[in-house]
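Final report, closing paragraph on structural work. Over the funding period we assembled a curated collection of sequence-structure pairs, and we close with a single example.
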Amino acid sequence: MPNTTIKYITLKRFVQIFSISIIATIFLVFLGYRELFKNTTEDKALDIANLVIAGLTSHMKADIMDKRVYFLNEIKKLNNVNSIEIIRSNSINKQFGTTQNKQILLSPTPNYEWNDVEGSVKATIPYIATSHGTLNCLSCHNVKDGDVLGSIEININISEQQRKILKYTYILIIALGLFALFISLNMFNFLEKYITLPLSNIVLDGQQAYEFHNEINSKNYTTKEFEQVAENINNFNHEVISKEEKLQEKNDELEKLNDEIELTLKDTMMAMGEIEEIRSHDTKNHTLRVTKLSVLIAKEYGLSKREVKLIALTAPMHDIGKIGISDGILLKPSKLTKEEFEIMKTHATLGHKVLQHSQREVLKIAAIIAHSHHEKYDGTGYPEGLKGEDIPLYARIVAIVDVLDALLSKRVYKEKWSQEKVKNFLLAEKSKHFDPKLVDIVVKNLPQYTKIIKDLTY
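Its predicted structure, as stored:
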């Protein structure tokens, strides 16, 4: 799952918290308003009950109880009351000799039954006998102080109040929603201005500061946190750049040392390869010519820079084994006998023995070239009779270059050949003595190679 932005995470968390806060606020306000409404309604029911009690008492004293229905109807109209019912207790019914069909357990405490679906509340308010005040109930009724004379059952219509509560709740929700939207937009702008944009800028400034070796201007940031980050980046860049400069100095020194070692190795390998040349004037600069041509052919063949460098270092050692061949054979101006040629062939094995014990890659490759540069592509060469791709590529390259230089140079046993004769010979030995791809490369560039051999022959 891909990572999200700080702005998204912060805004998401803020919206969650703010939404929960709004819902909780609406719920608490709704409960508070409903509780207030209930208390108000209950107080209203008590006031109506007291008014009814006072009115009925007045009617009774005026001996006009038969007119009480008009009084009750007026109260219902004025107070949005559905119905008012007077319920007498059993003791009052017995005193006045009346009965009522409705039986109710009268309680000394008010009782309220809420019906939110129908939008009404039924309040049952007890009428308690008292001997205090202007209303002395005990003077008219055969009861004791504190007895329940009856109850006033009032059914109040609260649908209008319910609609108002819902209306105000909707208004509150809309107002809080608009407020939440306003806060969210401001929070979005806040995050963009003080977090997202400065964060993007400080990353870019840090990259440029590192690239151009300069400092971030921490005063460009309006918050202390980002100002501190900018200063930390500057300190970090200073440390990194300082270490990089020291590392570069060490790398330069190491590179110079490597160049010196490589040059020393190259000169050493070339000097070792020229040892046998000192014994024969005719082969002077043979090592240099073989090395130069081997490098050119290796490049044409498509070898890597590293491989080309290796062949440049190791080609000079191809005939190092000839230091073990006697002058009588090595410098003989005529064709060697079969026995002498067998001795001459041992220079490949001798060269390999001289170099084979080293664990260095350069000397390992030099040993391979010294050992295999007289192998032939068709398997008729020596000393192992290797065939085709089994002959190491470095050895195949040096093999064709060694013969090319011998053919185009004067030796004690022959005159140098013409370019055309060499070409015909190479084509005749294609896939026999030499790698066919190498033959194509040499034939293609023969004029260039011939000139190089001529220029380095003196």
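DSSP finds 14 helices and four strands in the chain. The radius of gyration is 59 Å. We thank the funder for supporting this effort.
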